Amino acid sequence: MSKKTDVVSYINAIRTGDNINNCRKLRGLSQATFARKLGVTVKTVSNWEQGHTSFTLEHLGLMCRILRVTANDILCFDAEDVIPFYISLNHLPMLIIWFST
Predict the structure, then answer these.
(1) What is the pLDDT of residues 20-41, one digit of tens each?
(2) What's the CATH code of the domain at 26?
(3) Domain containing 37: what range?
(4) Which residues of 72-91 are buried (b: 16+ CB within 10 A; e: fewer)?
């Protein structure tokens, strides 16, 4: 992985964390309440919001439902930053996002 990719990944993690934090606050949820609804610790939510750790797709789905937002609202994708493509897994469609660098 190049230094440029590392920097871009870090910036995206920070932006995503900021989005989680802003959406959570707009819903009037404390980190503790949000963590409880997600089934994780407050430290885990804090790490996500600070961009220190990543979350699973399962947690992303739960966040979207709890916060009443889309995945794009949290992940802050720009159309030119991603190349979506579809695969089939056991005859169920699945969206895979491939980041262009």
Answers:
(1) 999 999 999 999 999 999 999 9
(2) 1.10.260.40
(3) 3-99
(4) ebbbebeeeeeeeeeeeeee
